[in-house]
Write a structure and sequence with these properties.
Blueprint: E1 5-9, H1 17-33, E2 36-43, H2 46-50, H3 61-70, E3 75-80, H4 83-86, H5 90-101, E4 104-110, H6 123-128, E5 132-136, E6 140-141, E7 144-145, H7 148-156, H8 160-167, E8 171-178, H9 183-186, E9 192-196, E10 206-213, E11 218-226, E12 237-242, E13 254-264, H10 272-291
Parallel strand pairs: 1-2, 1-4, 2-3, 4-5
Antiparallel strand pairs: 6-7, 8-9, 8-13, 9-12, 10-11, 10-13, 11-12
Helix pairs in contact: 7-8
Length: about 300
């Protein structure tokens, strides 16, 4: 890399408001030193190697990279977090990555950030190596700090408004539209059945008001998440009924869903008529919610 860089360190899953603040700080520093803003991220998530547990992710790696660039990074480097990296000493990371590969003149990290073998490395170690360090305080929200872990919990609880406030945008997942059992169509509510990446976090089961992100437009939708227990289903599904849209052939396309509000839990109905009545109420309620909601920026999800 010919130019010097201002490096941002971290997984940055979800690219939430705290992560966005890191980028803003790095951009300001980079402008003063005529440097590039380079994010050093990691994949798989370090918890996969360190704790042998894969956290459900807030976005795919490609989405993470896209978001980081859109929020101001010039380049995103993704390091393979494996057993070798887990045992890398802090001074080795500083020398090999920050100094040799990136020619870093400054590093921006979140408050309390640690790195290297057994998390021995601190911001002070980077500073001692002659690289300026900016430690950005956590952003507080409703009595606690914004973090990817906290956002995951909010999504698991179906708290989509709280999630959006911490992300700075609605929580959005993308998936390929695949063949379903056509039951929604038979009931007068055709749905797009999404195949979601197994690593991604899906909201708590229930019915949601959402925006569907199509190739060339954004459409209001009502989305069911979970098993169709009325018909004895046990496999969780994500199915979207696009309101006021008909005749669309979405099979094989990549569809995004921005979750706005959870309307109700998944319920078992004792008749098809009762289910249809509930779906009509869901559609009406979703329409009302979405009419008062600004659609998301389809390029920033």
């Amino acid at each position: 890399m010919p130019k010097t860089s201002v490096a941002i360190l971290g997984v940055l899953d979800g690219v939430h408001l705290g992560h966005q603040q890191l980028i803003k700080q790095a951009v300001q520093i980079a402008e003063q030193s005529d440097s590039l803003v380079v994010v050093v991220s990691f994949d798989p998530h370090p918890a996969t190697v360190l704790q042998k547990s894969q956290p459900e992710l807030l976005c795919t790696l490609e989405q993470r990279k896209q978001l980081l660039i859109e929020f101001g990074a010039d380049r995103v480097i993704v390091l393979n977090f494996n057993e070798k990296m887990m045992h890398q000493l802090p001074e080795e990371f500083i020398a090999q990555v920050l100094q040799e590969e990136l020619s870093a003149v400054a590093v921006v990290v979140g408050e309390g950030y640690r790195f290297g073998f057994k998390a021995q490395g601190t911001a002070q170690d980077i500073q001692d190596a002659g690289i300026a360090v900016t430690s950005v305080p956590h952003i507080e929200f409703n009595g606690g700090r914004i973090s990817s872990t906290r956002i995951r919990q909010a999504i698991k609880n179906g708290l989509m408004d709280e999630t959006a406030l911490m992300l700075g945008r609605p929580y959005t997942v993308f998936g390929e539209v695949v063949q379903g059992d056509q039951r929604g169509r038979e009931l007068g509510f055709p749905t797009a059945n999404l195949k979601i990446d197994s690593d991604l976090l899906i909201p708590q089961s229930g019915v949601y008001a959402a925006f569907a992100l199509l190739a060339n437009e954004i459409a209001p939708a009502v989305v069911s998440v979970g098993a169709n227990i009325t018909f004895g289903g046990t496999e969780p599904r994500v199915e979207a009924h696009l309101i006021d849209q008909s005749g669309l052939d979405l099979y094989g396309t990549n569809l995004g869903l921005s979750f706005i509000e959870r309307i109700r839990p998944m319920l078992a109905f004792d008749s098809q008529a009762a289910l249809i009545s509930a779906m009509e109420r869901d559609r009406a309620q979703a329409s009302t919610i979405l009419a008062d909601t600004l659609p998301p920026d389809s390029n920033r999800n």
